[in-house]
Design goal:
Length: 316
């Protein structure tokens, strides 16, 4: 018999205000699937974006949609071919599927085991649930696209948010020098994560301020904000430097800039690497607020402000 679960969901686009909490029936486990009891679900800006229908032409949707792509939980059942994990194992995942339908703001999810990685033993479920989407984004931007090397310099725009918080720490793991850009209230937070310098975008030209620190410019800019902040920063990119953005897809950019747009992909091997870094004490997760499932709409309202410090998490 199909399992009934409590889940946040929406039956039409329209943003957080369309989100309700109700009972839905989970699909049956297929051969390579596992049933995960969700202990915590990380919240990302894209969850609010999707609830407004902005991705409806890029990714197929089926209503009711359960929002959420980040999960930490415990394996409760497995399909007959799913053997990587045992019942009772604690796992985490970036659960973005080809169809937008079965998300993580729920009590359970059925998901192919290939998405899962072991949970870091030293982090709580809430901390772990904050890692997948934002952690993988920072990883794929700095390491895969940016090819960041020891002693290089990186300017991170939006460095106190979900992606930026991981980017500061991953850049320090590489041995790079980091300038973090966010508002003044987040400067001590960015320093605690390892930023060598901080800049407030609200009252400073970010490019000029960067040139004061590094007159020759920086090797890499990681753009997690775009707009005016990005445009200002470009004067501080070395001629040999690289720009990686998770928002700008090339519009308004000089074609001579070495540029790459990154759209984060699920990657269980990289989650394993992030787990190792967490267990080695090199990666922390700052959960600034925890919400219940009944507060899912409130969590989406907060995340769409684009002024969240660290991560926010839903605990069903
Ligand atoms: N392409 C992809 O694969 C991908 C992946 C992840 C995220 N994203 C997108 O990237 C953006 C960032 O994601 P996130 O999860 O890190 O968001 P977040 O947690 O909301 O963080 C946003 C950060 O940006 C800072 N900020 C806001 N306005 C700024 C400005 N004008 N200049 C510099 N910093 C500014 C905020 O700091 P203050 O509060 O101090 O202002 C905060 O630190 C979102 O739009 C998200 O949708 C794309």
């Amino acid at each position: 018999m199909a399992k009934e679960i409590k889940a946040a969901n929406y039956k039409e686009f329209g943003g957080p205000e369309k989100v309700r909490v109700g009972i839905l029936e989970l699909p049956e486990l297929k051969e390579g699937d596992v049933l995960v009891r969700i202990k915590a679900a990380g919240v990302n800006p894209v969850d609010a974006v999707i609830s407004k229908g902005y991705y409806k032409d890029m990714m197929p949707h089926t209503f009711p949609v359960i929002p959420g792509w980040d999960v930490c939980g415990e394996v409760e059942d497995r399909g007959h071919a799913a053997r990587r994990f045992n019942v009772g194992d604690e796992v985490y995942a970036y659960a973005r599927r080809p169809e937008v339908k079965w998300g993580t703001f729920a009590e359970y999810i059925v998901i192919p085991e290939s998405y899962l990685a072991e949970k870091p033993v030293n982090l709580s479920a809430e901390e772990t649930a904050g890692i997948p989407l934002a952690g993988l984004t920072a990883y794929q931007c700095l390491y895969d696209a940016g090819k960041l090397q020891e002693n290089q310099t990186v300017l991170i725009l939006g460095a106190s948010g979900g992606v930026g918080s991981f980017a500061i720490q991953l850049a320090k793991v590489t041995g790079a020098k980091v300038i973090g850009v966010a508002s003044e209230k987040n400067h001590s937070y960015m320093k605690e994560l390892g930023a060598d310098y901080t800049i407030d975008y609200r009252n400073t030209d970010v490019g000029e301020a960067t040139r004061e620190i590094y007159p020759d410019g920086v090797d890499l800019i990681l753009d997690c904000t775009s707009g005016e902040t990005l445009q200002q920063s470009l004067q501080a990119l070395k001629p040999s430097g690289k720009l990686v953005s998770i928002l700008n897809q090339g519009e308004g950019l000089d074609p001579d800039i070495d540029f790459q747009f990154v759209f984060v992909e699920p990657n269980a091997q990289q989650l394993d690497h992030l787990r190792e870094l967490a267990e080695a004490g090199k990666l922390e997760v700052h959960v600034s607020k925890t919400y219940s499932l009944n507060q899912a709409a409130e969590a989406l309202e907060q995340i769409q402000s684009l002024h969240t410090t660290g991560k926010i998490v839903i605990v069903p």
